[in-house]
């Protein structure tokens, strides 16, 4: 029976490519499922043989540790150089998105506070 190794929800394309290459390098058979049309399933990378699961998990743990170290170093370098994205960069490049997000937050806070307001009166 197949085992899910990696759910592809919020996984970057370069990470997916790295995992594919890692599995192919270590001759671990796998297949992928694609995201569903309506966003219910986000796809995944599945191992064909159950006996490959411990080795694949070990490889994934090593890969994720190395990736975490590399990405944190890249982010720290970007912050030192002043090229890291800030909140003001997002506000400047996507003002409508920021405005809609703030309106949604205010609306949801209003919904949460509504029972207390109604009961107080």
What structural keywords apply?
mainly alpha, Alpha-Beta Plaits, 121 residues, 62% helix, 3-stranded antiparallel β-sheet, 2 domains
How do the strands and helices of this protein lay out in sequence?
Blueprint: E1 3-7, H1 13-25, E2 30-33, E3 44-47, H2 53-81, H3 87-93, H4 95-120
Antiparallel strand pairs: 1-3, 2-3
Helix pairs in contact: 3-4
Short overview:
The protein is built from 4 helices and 3 strands. It has 121 residues and is mainly α.
Amino- and carboxy-terminal Cα gap: 59 Å
- Shape descriptor reads extended
- Indicate the structural class: mainly alpha
For this structure, the CATH topology of the largest domain is Alpha-Beta Plaits
Please report which band the strand proportion falls in: under 5%, 5-15%, 15-25%, 25-35%, 35-45% or over 45%: 5-15%
Q: Total strand count, please?
A: 3
> Which second-level CATH architecture of the largest domain applies?
2-Layer Sandwich
Q: Compute the gyration radius: what is it? A: 21 Å
Cross-sheet strand order for the largest sheet = 1-3-2
What is the string of helix and strand elements? EHEEHHH
What can you tell me about this protein's structure?
The mean pLDDT is 94. The relative contact order is 0.10. 62% of the residues lie in helices and 11% in strands. It is built from four helices and three strands. The longest helix is centred in the middle third of the chain and has 29 residues, at 53-81. Helix 3 crosses helix 4 (95-120). The chain is mostly helical and 121 residues long. The chain has two domains: 1-84, Alpha-Beta Plaits, CATH 3.30.70; 85-121. It has a three-stranded antiparallel β-sheet, with helices on one face. The protein starts with a strand and ends with a helix. The radius of gyration is 21 Å and the shape is extended.
């Amino acid at each position: 029976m197949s085992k899910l190794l990696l759910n592809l929800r919020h996984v970057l394309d370069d990470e997916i490519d790295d995992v594919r290459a890692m599995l192919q390098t270590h001759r671990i058979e796998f297949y992928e499922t694609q995201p569903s049309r309506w966003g219910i399933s986000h796809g995944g990378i599945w191992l064909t043989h159950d006996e490959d699961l411990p080795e694949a998990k070990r490889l994934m743990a090593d890969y994720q540790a190395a990736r975490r170290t590399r990405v944190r170093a890249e982010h720290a370098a970007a912050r030192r150089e002043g090229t890291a994205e800030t909140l003001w960069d997002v506000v400047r490049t996507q003002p409508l998105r920021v405005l809609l997000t703030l309106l949604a937050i205010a609306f949801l806070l209003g919904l949460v506070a509504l029972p207390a307001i109604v009961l107080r009166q």
